[in-house]
C-alpha cells in the first residue's frame, strides 16, 4: 500500500508526495539542496517517470525519464535554445529539432549522444542553410550549403542605412 508525506534529506533537499517501500512513488515534488532545482511529476519506485525539472539557471525540461535520465520525448529550454524531440539515456537522441528562441537559427534532423549525427538541415542566424550529412556534431560527407539570397540580404541592411543617414 502507498503512503505519502514530506521527507527531508540530509543534504537539505526535500520530497513531498507519494511514497512506497521507502521510495518516491506516485506524484510528488522533489527540491534539491539549497533550492538547486526542482522536479515535479510522477515517480516509480524512486525514479522520475514523466514531469518537469527546473534548474536554478532557469533551464527547464518537460518530458519522459528512465532510470533518472531523460529518455523518450521531451522539451528542453536552455538559455536561448529549445530542443524538442527524442532523448536517449540523458542525451538528445534519434530525431529532434533544436531552435534559437531569438533568431532563425535551428537544426532539424537526427542525433546521437547529444550531437547532430546522420542527416539534418541547419538554418543559420542569417537565414542561410546546410542540408546534408553530419557526424559527431560536425557537417561531414555530402551536403548543400545555401547562403542568404542577395535580395534578402539587402532587405536586412536597408533599415541600417536609413538610420545611419538620418
What does this structure look like?
The structure is a single chain. This protein folds into two domains: 1-58, no CATH class; 69-166, Histone H3 K4-specific methyltransferase SET7/9 N-terminal domain (Single Sheet), CATH 2.20.110. 10% of the residues lie in helices and 63% in strands. The protein contains one helix and 13 strands. It has one helix at 150-165; strands at residues 3-8, 14-20, 23-31, 38-44, 47-54, 60-66, 69-78, 81-88, 91-100, 106-112, 115-123, 129-135, 138-146. The protein has a 13-stranded antiparallel beta sheet with strand order 1-2-3-4-5-6-7-8-9-10-11-12-13, with no helix packed on it. A hairpin with a 2-residue loop joins strand 12 and strand 13. It is elongated and about 65 Å long.
Can you list the strand order of the major beta sheet?
1-2-3-4-5-6-7-8-9-10-11-12-13
Q: What is the CATH architecture term of the largest domain?
A: Single Sheet
What is the total number of structural domains? 2
Radius of gyration, whole Å? 22 Å
| Count of helical regions | 1
**Uncertain regions: pLDDT < 50 for 5+ in a row?**
153-166
Number of strands: 13
Strand content: over 45%
Largest sheet, described in full? 13 strands, antiparallel
What CATH calls the topology of the largest domain is Histone H3 K4-specific methyltransferase SET7/9 N-terminal domain
What is the highest CATH level, the class of the largest domain? Answer: Mainly Beta
Give the overall pLDDT as a whole number: 88
Amino acid at each position: 500500500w502507498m503512503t505519502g508525506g514530506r521527507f527531508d534529506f540530509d543534504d537539505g533537499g526535500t520530497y513531498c508526495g507519494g511514497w512506497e517501500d521507502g521510495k518516491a512513488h506516485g506524484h510528488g515534488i522533489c527540491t534539491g539542496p539549497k533550492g538547486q532545482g526542482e522536479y515535479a511529476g510522477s515517480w516509480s519506485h524512486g525514479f522520475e517517470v514523466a514531469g518537469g525539472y527546473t534548474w536554478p539557471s532557469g533551464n527547464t525540461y518537460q518530458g519522459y525519464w528512465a532510470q533518472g535520465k531523460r529518455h523518450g520525448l521531451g522539451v528542453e529550454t536552455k538559455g536561448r535554445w529549445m530542443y524538442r524531440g527524442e532523448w536517449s539515456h540523458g542525451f538528445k537522441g534519434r530525431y529532434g529539432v533544436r531552435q534559437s528562441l531569438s533568431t532563425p537559427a535551428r537544426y532539424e534532423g537526427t542525433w546521437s549522444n547529444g550531437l547532430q549525427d546522420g542527416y539534418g538541415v541547419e538554418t543559420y542566424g542569417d537565414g542561410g542553410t546546410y542540408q546534408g550529412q553530419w557526424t559527431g556534431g560536425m557537417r561531414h560527407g555530402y551536403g548543400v550549403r545555401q547562403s542568404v539570397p542577395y535580395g534578402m540580404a539587402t532587405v536586412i541592411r536597408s533599415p541600417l542605412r536609413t538610420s545611419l543617414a538620418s
